[in-house]
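Aggregate trends can hide what the representation actually does to any particular protein. For completeness, the protein is quoted in full, as a sequence line and a line of structure tokens.
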Amino acid sequence: MTAEAKTKRNANLPSPASETLPSTAVADMMAADAGDGLSTDAADNMVSMIRVLQPMSPQVIRGNAQMIDAAMPGDIWLKGASPPVVQGEVGIVFQPAHFTRMWIEWIPRDQGGGLVAQYLEKPPEAHMVEDERRGRVNWAMPNGNEVIETRYISGLHHADDGGRAPFTIPFVSSGHAVARGWMALMNAQRQNGKTLPAYGMTYKLTTRSRTNQAGTWYVLHVAVWRKVEDMADYLLGKALFESFASGHKKAIEERA
């Protein structure tokens, strides 16, 4: 193709987007058309999990197909993030936005695992099963599937580079105490005598080890970080709350 032909062809192409901010008119149109062309189906808006890696997590076992280089028990795994693992003692900053509590039915691991169903209340047909090794009581369906009470706190991970990404943190077993303590901490945050919304504060999440006769495991440790003062962060947190509350966003629930 000749240079003249290339020039004519390129003349018909749209010009590159301006690097300047949109004009007031364009900004107003964007506000009026917010959401056009986007799916609000929860299946198209899944949110990844943040988990604390345990001594038997596949991500820390050498030779396992799911192994993550340099990952160690007690590290925090942000699935899909880059980098995906943060050292537990370093921790992350998290802006919570939404809380929910569910009962999750799972196929047992030794039978292949897999999510079966989610319930707002414990299924009436579930019965207690004692776990003598761990000294706790579990629940199971008549067909042998496990039923696990799970608390979820969803929010925004504040990355060191300024990025913000939605994640959900699940809490099971001894993690319930952590989730309840975090909720008490959220309820204690006040301004002018009123409780702040969950997304009005950020928290530093690190990990700590616990040990009993069954072994050693790691849980999150939650500490107040700072109040959200940036309007963009506040609005992102509020929008995430509304997306979860409406069912437009949903956590990707899977066994670690």
Residues 6-11 have pLDDT under 50 and may be disordered. The two ends are 55 Å apart (CA to CA).
